[in-house]
Write a structure and sequence with these properties.
The structure holds 3 protein chains of 3 kinds. Chain A folds into 2 domains: 3-102, Ubiquitin-like (UB roll) (Roll), CATH 3.10.20; 105-246, Fumarate Reductase Iron-sulfur Protein, Chain B, domain 2 (Orthogonal Bundle), CATH 1.10.1060.10. In chain A, 38% of the residues lie in helices and 16% in strands. Chain A has helices at 32-42, 105-113, 132-141, 149-153, 155-158, 170-181, 190-195, 207-211, 218-235, 237-252, and strands at 3-13, 16-26, 62-65, 68-71, 85-89, 96-98, 101-102. In chain A, strand 6 and strand 7 form a beta hairpin. Chain B is mainly alpha-helical. Chain B has one domain (35-264). The longest helix of chain B is centred in the first third of the chain and has 23 residues, at 35-57. Chain C is α/β, with parallel strands linked by helices. Chain C folds into 3 domains: 22-263 and 406-478, FAD/NAD(P)-binding domain, CATH 3.50.50; 264-405, Flavocytochrome C3, Chain A, domain 1; 622-750, no CATH class. Chain C has a 5-stranded parallel sheet, sandwiched between helices. In chain C, 58% of the residues are buried. The chains are: A alpha+beta, B mainly alpha, C alpha/beta.
């Protein structure tokens, strides 16, 4: 049932590091995170990795497994050949702290830059009325477990550190879309999506969607609709003209 | 294809933060990640060659009852007699090259700005990125924020134009219920080909992300617009398969054109049912 | 605005050469789950500078694991629901061992806490009228759980997280610094609470997991919100964080733990593959037709129906199967017995050798429903098994077994203020005790977090206001030194025992000897082992450096797990009855005498172990007792206790809302938690949207309030143990709570 498998795990910190080879027992039904835990318990007690729920619900154990950004707890060993070497490396896009643990502070910083939910001022708690079909779109985005795999995979920052200042990444553009589609949000988010959060960096190559462990259709349901909403606001002469006229009429009235 | 704003090829990628884990390999992926962009590129290149050749060929696009989608509507005076739509020929004798060039910008633009094709060519041609978690070879990346890629935001106008073209091509399919002599009440394999092409183009257009937005995606409250919500739901379902429709309709157009060309140049005759 | 950070050596005047970072806050909240964040938000609302200490990254707390929903008697789906019904359900669920006042506050305040989340951006599933939808759940008489699909916990944590961000944005706008008044210290573990010379809370000391550097928080108020203890068991639905830190830290600081023997084992956790052993399989699987079979293919639950339930449960498979379609004329299948009963039955089957090879039983829904229907009704279970176990539940049975899920016991707190006996120390959420009695109802934990998280934040802030400017407690340098020395010990002993080994042995000990069924000789054996573990614990070593060293972290967590395990085992040995989450093999029945007793753990004099004492359970106010049928109460209370009810029974009964008067028949079934399956409750006619009239509950409620008022006063007068300040606090809190309830009522009337 069990076999000896070959693992390569990146070990090191900001000052340097490399892939270390391990031979480790692998049993039926295990996932990559189990193997990392076994390495901790038997061979490398100080090997750093994050994890919490072990059920794909908290988004802590993000790493790159054979080069693919994945949750370690959701990657079954049975998806590899027994003689295949499994390589586990930390997320590339963020500064490494130690071994598989990276500094994901970028994401928390970006989270703060998205203007919070802004309900109508006069609406009291308990008086909120929303229809199910109106909340469903935003609900899909709220399934996000903040594993940051999308943030890590997006080439706009993965391959271009310099874009981090101006680009919030798929997770937070999706947050903007979530609020823009929230039936009771009153803030305007179209301009900020483009100008502050860098929606224009997105070239819809869909890697965020590809790696999302929650199977949220980030590109199709959040980013592209948001791009279209920005077009409404910024790049559609007809709409622009219509708004201009309407505004004039309403100010006349 | 759109011009590359990304600094080209050999320039060394910008140094990444030294604080990142220092891993030399551009990617550690062990699967055949290069296969999909390679196939995309090969197919698109093949289509471009074929389409360019046919667009400039200025021949074999009309058979009396069938017209190639590359040449419809044919709006130059020098179009083959009978091929123009209701005699509408605003371009006079001075337009001496292929009439296809007058109109192809619209379907081409629609596909160039399509959210699916953008993914396809950014990955396959610009390698930005070639595949997920595979480093792109460019030193700088500005996305779709500047000219000319910012023009991709014009997708919805090409979508509107596409609707007009779809209507015309649908009419062409109806006209295919004639025989080469122009008499109604006939049907041939060519009729089926033109119908299939028109249907595929409709499905591709209606499944597009802009259509989904216009249909209802832009609304904040679906509950206040039940009809548009229904439309949006339908388009959303189609939209799931937008990639499929994009490819199938691309092949559809090319094959339809090839069929018309082969009939027009007499390689074989269009089998008729009645 | 000022960061109050000093990074110099000996910043707190310690003798140690260790550089220690120092921060000064008004309130330090330990734990960033639902309770912790809600407490922090409330303290910040009250104008305090707050630090939140999170053992993991911000937003990863165990709260995300909650699936079902948050119980709150909003009456959106069935307008007959109100706080009294919710209170009754909660007390029954806990088998009347709950602190009545907590259950009361919880039932009254939960709706406001849920509505408030909406104003912070939460998106619950909706009813047709656009209100928050509510679902049925075990033990709840009416559909009561506000939910978002099966990821309600995630919604809750995200909403609170985003509220924290919103407050930080406000601070940024007014001060230029996001973290001026509310800062989250992610991946930081507290190792000791600090007190001043007079025994008041003065702060806490901990380390950054990332760097291994120490940090001292000076704060007059500390709120514990660290969650549960499941990591002391092998099979658990809990994450690594659940090492009982809050319990242990509070105990070490002089606080007491109450009723630690009550640990909830959920009957259906995954047992295979090993990687996911313990992960929850939702109760709805059984509600939707799933059946339990042993390795011989037998539906064994028919053999385990206790006498008290015999009347309500089917005796043949045919009748049980008919129930799904016709609940009026058939009795429910025995798979839907209360959680503790099912967990015990599975345990017995496995012990009798009729379990699956992986030590569970089969839960089969594949032969019961069409594949399409299973995917529609149980989407997350379908995916969970598909992705984690490679099992297609539409074609194969699942393997399930009991899993350690929740600890009802916890830090003993004042029900109104959440304050402990240590001045300045508060606790909320799973790490506090009393609210759930001997068994928690599904859905009550999320609302518990919100209600008591807020209360802890509020009262911590009030406590600080009461201190004035001069009276801020000071951290003693020697205490910091001692804590640092203790924490560094494993690193200095790199060749010591592997902490993972000891942890594993502890888990096995607790799982096998203090598990679902407790035998006195086994529990005694566990206690002997725990005594052996104690010296071993001090000798564990951690190889490697201080930066993000999991071996070191485990070594430090072991202390807490050992202390908490000792509490659980000692209390389990002491309580000679079976009730809720505590089942004694030698005392299988509930005892009215034991119902009157809370078991209190505290640190013994030399700090080497736990002292256990009996403490009378607070007397339930007659007006609250009056909400129950006397015949039901007789099952739990001694006749002596119920004589109190004799005088006031009549008037209180009148004060009951007319709408919720119940037939006296079948009190037994109502007395048990988790007996009402979703499906059965669905058979009740659903509330029509037009039914806006709610005349009965409102006068009833206000009458109840008045009765509560006078009764509460009486209780307060009788209370001799409470200090004068605590009493005053309690009264203001009550007045406040009542004012709020009134507000809510007016609002409801206006609607």
């Amino acid at each position: 049932m069990g076999y000896k498998g070959k693992f390569k795990v990146w070990r090191g910190d900001a000052s340097g590091g490399d892939l270390k080879d391990f031979e480790v027992e692998i049993n039926e039904g295990e996932v990559v995170l189990d193997i990392i835990h076994r390495l901790q318990a038997t061979q490398a007690p100080d090997m750093a990795c994050r994890w919490n729920c072990k059920a794909g619900k908290c988004g802590s154990c993000s790493a790159e497994i054979n080069g693919k950004p994945r949750l370690m707890c959701m990657t079954r060993m049975s998806t590899f050949e027994q003689d295949e070497t499994v390589t586990v490396t930390p997320l590339r896009t963020f500064p490494v702290i130690k071994d598989l643990v990276t500094d994901v502070g970028f994401n928390y910083a970006k989270a703060r830059e998205v203007k919070s939910f802004t309900p109508p001022k006069d609406l009291l708690p308990g008086e909120y009325r929303m229809q199910q079909i109106d909340v469903e779109r935003s609900q899909e985005f709220r399934k996000c477990i903040e594993c940051y795999l999308c943030q890590n995979t997006c080439h706009a920052v993965r391959d271009h550190e310099e874009n981090k200042d101006n680009f919030s990444g798929p997770r937070y553009l999706m947050r903007v879309a979530e609020l823009d589609m929230h039936p009771l949000d009153t803030a305007d988010r179209k301009n900020s999506a483009q100008e502050e959060h860098g929606l224009g960096f997105c070239n819809i190559t869909k890697c965020c969607t590809e790696v999302c462990p929650e199977h949220i259709r980030i590109t199709d349901n959040a980013l592209i609709p948001m791009k279209e909403r920005v077009v409404d606001r910024k790049y559609d002469p007809l709409v622009w003209l219509g708004n201009k006229i309407r505004r004039r009429t309403s100010s006349d009235a | 294809m759109a011009t590359d704003t990304i600094a080209p090829g050999p320039e060394a990628p910008a140094p990444l933060s030294p604080a990142r884990a220092q891993i030399e390999q551009k990617t550690l992926r062990t699967d055949r990640w290069w296969l999909s962009p390679l196939l995309t590129m090969l197919v698109l290149v093949a289509f471009i060659f074929y389409a360019t050749f046919r667009a400039f060929q200025n021949a074999d696009y009309y058979t009396g009852n069938l017209i190639s989608p590359f040449y419809s509507p044919c709006i130059a005076t020098k179009c083959v007699p009978g091929s123009s739509l209701g005699g509408f020929k605003p371009f006079g004798d001075w337009w001496s090259i292929s009439p296809a060039l007058l109109i192809l910008i619209f379907p081409l633009g629609f596909r160039m700005t399509c959210y699916y094709y953008r993914k396809a060519y950014y990955r396959a041609f610009w390698q930005s990125p070639p595949a997920c978690a595979v480093a792109e070879p460019h030193g700088k990346y500005t996305g779709e924020r500047r000219f000319p890629l910012i023009l991709n935001n014009s997708h919805r106008y090409f979508f509107y134009a596409g609707l007009i073209f779809n209507t015309i091509l649908s009419w062409d399919a109806i006209l295919a219920f004639r025989n080469p002599a122009g008499q109604w009440g006939h049907m041939s394999v060519g009729t089926l080909v033109l119908i299939a092409n028109a249907v595929l183009l409709w499905v591709y257009s209606l499944s597009c992300h802009s259509c989904r937005h216009i249909m209802g995606g832009k609304l904040k409250h679906f509950s206040k617009h039940p009809l548009r919500y229904k439309g949006w739901t339908l388009v959303s379902k189609l939209n799931h398969k937008h990639m499929l429709f994009a490819w199938v309709s691309l092949f559809g157009v090319a094959l339809t054109d090839a069929y018309v060309a082969l009939v027009a140049n007499g390689t074989f005759s269009n089998p008729t049912f009645f | 605005m000022t960061d109050n950070t000093e990074n110099t050596e000996n910043a707190v005047g310690t003798k140690s050469t260790e550089p220690v970072e120092r921060h000064s806050y008004d309130v330090v909240v330990i734990g960033a789950g639902g309770a912790g964040l809600r407490a922090a938000i409330e303290a910040r609302h009250a104008g305090k500078r707050v630090a939140v200490i999170s053992k993991s990254l911000f937003g990863k707390a165990h709260t995300v694991m909650a699936e079902g929903g948050a119980a709150a008697a909003m009456g959106n789906v069935n307008p007959k629901d109100n706080w009294q019904v919710h209170f009754r359900d909660t007390m029954r669920g806990g088998k009347f061992l709950n602190h009545f006042r907590m259950a009361e506050l919880h039932a009254k305040e939960a709706p406001d806490r849920i509505w408030e989340l909406e104003t912070w951006g939460a998106l619950f599933d909706r009813t047709k009228e656009g209100k928050i939808s509510q679902r049925n759940f075990g033990g709840h008489e009416y559909p009561r759980l506000a939910h978002v699909g099966d990821r309600t916990g995630l919604e809750l944590i995200r909403t609170l997280q985003q509220r924290v961000v919103a407050l930080q944005q406000e601070d940024k706008a007014s001060t230029g610094d996001y973290e001026a008044n509310l800062r989250v210290f992610a991946e930081t573990t507290i190792v000791r609470l600090l007190k001043d010379a007079s025994g008041r809370i003065a702060g806490a000391v901990g380390y950054y997991r990332e760097t291994g550097q120490f940090v001292v928080f000076e704060a007059p108020a500390v709120i514990m919100a660290t969650g549960g203890i499941g990591r002391s068991y092998t099979v658990t639905s809990n994450s690594w964080e659940y090492t009982g830190d809050g319990h242990a830290l509070a105990l070490l600081a002089g606080a007491a733990l109450v009723n630690m023997e009550f640990v909830q084992f959920h009957p259906t956790g995954m047992v295979w593959p090993p990687s996911v052993k313990g992960i929850l399989v939702t109760e709805s699987v059984r509600g939707d037709g799933g059946v339990l079979r042993n390795s011989e293919g037998k539906r064994f639950m028919f053999d385990y129906v206790p006498d008290v339930f015999r009347k309500q449960y089917a005796e043949t498979e045919e009748e049980a199967d008919r129930w799904y379609d016709d609940q009026e004329n058939n009795r429910r299948p025995p798979e839907l017995l209360p959680r503790d009963e099912v967990a015990r039955s599975i345990n017995s089957e496995v012990k009798a050798g009729r379990g699956t090879p992986n030590g569970g039983v089969f839960l089969d829904v594949s032969t019961r429903l069409p594949a399409e229907e299973i995917r529609r009704r149980l989407p997350s279970m379908y995916h969970q098994f598909k992705e984690l176990a490679d099992v297609d539940i539409t074609a194969q049975p699942m393997e399930v077994g009991p899993t350690c899920h929740y600890v009802m016991g916890g830090i003993e707190v004042d029900p109104d203020t959440q304050g402990t006996v240590v001045p300045g120390l508060y606790a909320a959420g799973e790490c506090s005790g009393g609210m759930h009695g001997s068994n928690r109802l599904g859905g009550n934990s999320l609302s518990d977090l919100l209600v008591f998280g807020r209360r802890a934040g509020l009262h911590a802030a009030e406590y600080i206001d009461g201190l004035g400017t001069a009276g801020k407690p000071a951290v003693a340098a020697a205490d910091v030194d001692a804590a640092l020395e203790e924490a560094l010990a494993p690193l200095a002993n790199a060749d010591g025992e592997n902490p993972y080994t000891l942890h594993h042995e502890l888990q096995v000990t607790m799982n096998t000897l203090v598990g679902i069924i407790r035998k006195p000789e086994e529990v005694s054996e566990a206690l002997t082992k725990l005594e052996e573990f104690k010296p071993r614990r001090t000798k564990v070593g951690a190889a490697g450096g201080r930066r993000f060293n999991p071996g070191w972290h485990v070594a430090l967590d072991l202390r807490n797990m050992l202390i908490v395990s000792e509490c659980v085992a000692k209390a389990a040995l002491e309580r000679e009855e079976s009730r809720g989450g505590h089942t004694r093999d030698d005392h299988p029945a509930m005892s009215s005498k034991w119902r009157q007793i809370n078991l209190i753990c505290s640190l013994n004099e030399d700090g080497s172990g736990i002292d256990l004492k009996h403490q009378p359970i607070p007397t339930i106010r007659p007006d609250l007792l009056g909400l129950f049928e006397v015949s039901e109460l007789q099952k739990y209370f001694t006749d002596e206790e119920l004589t109190v009810l004799g005088d006031s029974a009549e008037p209180v009964a009148e004060a009951k809302p007319a709408g919720e008067a119940k037939p006296a028949a079948e009190p037994e079934v109502k007395s048990e938690p988790a007996t009402e399956s979703k499906a059965e409750a669905k058979s009740e006619p659903e509330a029509k949207p037009e039914a806006k009239t709610e005349p009965a509950p409102i006068p009833g409620q206000s009458n109840g309030e008045k009765a509560a008022d006078t009764a509460a006063d009486k209780v307060a007068e009788k209370s001799t143990e409470k200090s004068a300040t605590a009493e005053a606090e309690e009264q203001t809190a009550q007045a406040e709570a009542e004012a709020q309830t009134e507000d809510a009522e007016t609002a409801a009337e206006e609607k």
